Amino acid sequence: MSITDWPEDERPRERLLKQGPSALSDAELLAIFLRVGMKGKSAVDLARELVTTFGSLNGLFSASREALCEVKGMGEAKYVQLQAVLEMAKRALDENIKLTDALSSPQAVRDYLRLSLSRLPHEVFVAVFLTAQNRVIEVEEIFRGTLTQTSVYPREIVKRALAHNAASIIFAHNHPSGEANPSQADRALTKTLADALALVDVQVLDHFIVAPGASLSFAEQGIMKF
User: From CA 161, how far away is CA 139, in angstroms rounded?
Assistant: First the structure.
């Protein structure tokens, strides 16, 4: 049955207008994006299949072009549209964190980092450089590594902090194939960086670990108390 044949108060688009986007399921939101399904399958049916196939919306967003195009009813046009939507969301969050106090709006920083890092297949280490008023100066990928290891050099990070005239820094890195739990190496690296940056009067405020579907803040966990 086509969605247009559904009762009006059950259609995703009409429900969103009346109840807001939070009232819709992942599949219903995705169906609005898809707009149409395929022969014998409504947009909601196709959306449910996609969420099931890739495990979650995050899994869908992380899917390669080849994997997405293998699903009947999808194709390169839908892949391109999906990537465009994700990039617009990322840029909107980037604008948001640069206009707000990073400490008074930690969720904005977390949301930006999760959207930027959680889908990457490789490990990256990112620094968020802040002013004395905790406004974001720049978000910079400092190092990129393999799936399991990244080399981070304190001297290079100190140089970047001085180049940006930063008063403080928030670090973040991702665990592409694991959980958002800090290893002993993560803890040791954070302390090493904090000690090195303290010598030039730059404070490390937090370190986020981002994994598929989860994130962890060192500051919230009390790990920043070295």
Answer: 11
b/e map of 67-100 (b: 16 or more CB within 10 Å)?
ebeebebbeeebbeebeeeeeeeeeebbeebeeb
> Using one digit for the tens of pLDDT, what is the confidence trace for 155-204?
999 999 999 999 999 999 999 877 888 989 899 999 999 999 999 999 99
Q: Which two tokens stand for residue 103?
A: 């400490």
Q: Which residue has the higher pLDDT, 93 or 7?
A: 93
Residues 6 or more apart whose CB falls under 8 angstroms from that of 173 comprise 117, 123, 124, 125, 126, 150, 186, 207, 208, 209, 210
d(CA 113, CA 215): 9
97 close to 136: Cβ distance less than 8 angstroms: yes
pTM, entire model: 0.69
Number of neighbours of residue 148 by Cβ within 10 angstroms: 11
Residue 94's H or E segment, with its range, is: helix 76-99
